[in-house]
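@channel anyone free to eyeball this complex?
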Amino acid sequence: MRIGELAARTGVSVRALRYYEEQELLVPQRSRSGQRHYPDSAVDHVRLIQELYAAGLSSRTIVELMPYAVDGRATPELIDRLSAERDRVEGRITELVGTRDRLDSVITGAAKNLRTGRSCRVGPTG
Amino acid sequence: MRIGELAARTGVSVRALRYYEEQELLVPQRSRSGQRHYPDSAVDHVRLIQELYAAGLSSRTIVELMPYAVDGRATPELIDRLSAERDRVEGRITELVGTRDRLDSVITGAAKNLRTGRSCRVGPTG
DNA sequence: CTTGCCTCTCACGTCAACGTCAGGTTTTAG
DNA sequence: CTAAAACCTGACGTTGACGTGAGAGGCAAG
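replying in thread with the prediction:
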């Protein structure tokens, strides 16, 4: 399929797809006239890329991890890299859970404040 | 305290503190000569700001939520805003948990691949 | 053939949260 | 008093993942 269709199917912009190519994340074939042609598998490929971006990985990191997703070839280094990223994501989750709990207690305090009309201090821990 | 000490205590840069002021997140008093002077509470204040940044909130959003943190005054709108951000954070957590699990299964597959030396496809779902 | 949409390649613009440098003033230590 | 350290105000630079517009070429339909 051509770039417009892939964009429509994945929900990412045409510009983004060209950017992915620039970053060597998704390199399509070219017709004689220079138009990009993607296989059907590109749809899932793009979704994976998006997910990894959403997880906070950079293009460079994704590029480094792609060889595995592409040809299924694993090396110890690759596994280390994947594990490191997994741990990073895990760390982010922990942070965010803490923040969510903080927000929860702030909200609870605020709601109480609202009911009583009294100003009960809720700021940073302490 | 002056800006350098606050920076040292919080671990954020002097530049960042000046940026926070620019964004009206943390407005200190000024001496006659123009130097910034912060109260002790600014330390916790900065930490809260950092945490909210880390949670993915923008300066603008933080500014909107600050009135509560500053004077403890809650309004229904503020609580809605806080709840909305809480839900955003919760959504991010769910996403990241999914990604972590995806990474886990990829890693497991890769490790198995490595042991067997066989290429077992692990890519996007499907 | 031409209309119209899709695509191409530059290449500059954007946005957030600062980094960094320049050039000058204030505070502090000796 | 002097020198160093800390502070001040601009103001331009950085990074990542694109947005946006210009100007030109490609392709199926009438």
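from a first look: Chain A touches chain B through 50 residues (CB under 8 Å).
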